[in-house]
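Our platform keeps sequence and structure together, in a single record for each protein. Because each token names a local backbone shape, the row as a whole describes the fold. One such record is reproduced below, unchanged from the form in which we store it:
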Amino acid sequence: MNYRLLGNTGLKVSELCLGAMTFGRETSEEDSFRILDRFVDAGGNFIDTADVYSRGISEEIVGRWLAKQGREDLIVATKVRFPMGEGPNDLGTSRKHIMDGIKASLKRLQTDYIDLYQVHAWDPLTPLEETLSTLNDLVRQGYVRYLGASNFKGWQLQKAVDMSKAQGWERFVSLQPQYNLLCRATEYELLEVCDKEGIGVIPWSPLRGGWLSGKFRRGMSSPPEGSRVEKAEQEGWGESWTAYNNEHTWQVLDELHAIAEETGKTPAQVAINWLLQKKAITSPIIGVRTMEQLESNLGAAGWALTGEQMERLDRASSMPVTYPYDQTAINQRART
């Protein structure tokens, strides 16, 4: 596996990041350990979790594995923001919740520091100065090495970067957004901000909850039994059958399967490889439930789609662009 610099830093992370959201939920601790071992054997060094994943159980599993495996060569990322209790201050990005959160995460992860500490989402109730100054303190105190954000809008990310620069605080070096062949709106502003500000991008849901895994083909009338998409329909998650059973999805999947056949790769490997070749992308997060899924996703690295294949996937997955984003394309045509 190759390694890439995380944004405008000297930190080298594997081109695939292992997401631990399934640990303690769909995946047992024993299987989680096997998945982590295999990922490291394949050259992976980047592991992403969050305090809210199974209310801390994911962090605890990763922590017990780290105690056995060793910590020094691994890049561990976690997040803070969402509810971890029933109290009024058990959520958000206030100084209190962040300070409580870092203490709890360090204990669960059985480590003295976190490599990448990420704000899981924007908090409209807490002044941004409070959040950023607190995060800066954590770096200065040695509890955190780097800072990142997740699920921010373009203006929110730019405001955070500009405020950190103005105050001389540690700034966000990475963004964790949703980005995949079925979610291209990330390109409208977020990727441009990241590119111009030297922010690394570690996309979550590169297979959109299984839609790009190869299990789905045109003509299906319902999701496969036991699939994440079936559960999403029951739980009201974003990747539900109702949300994606449309002509645009089937158009994307038609092209994805065609290119998979041409390359001799799986649709999942093609979808992740498409991300790996996109500008500003550092390391897509592969969230797996089983060893079989991990082995498949690892096969996304070490090769490259052709320019023609990238263009076909871009074309099939493109969506109509509305104002003001359509003005960018108009202005570009006017200059040529």
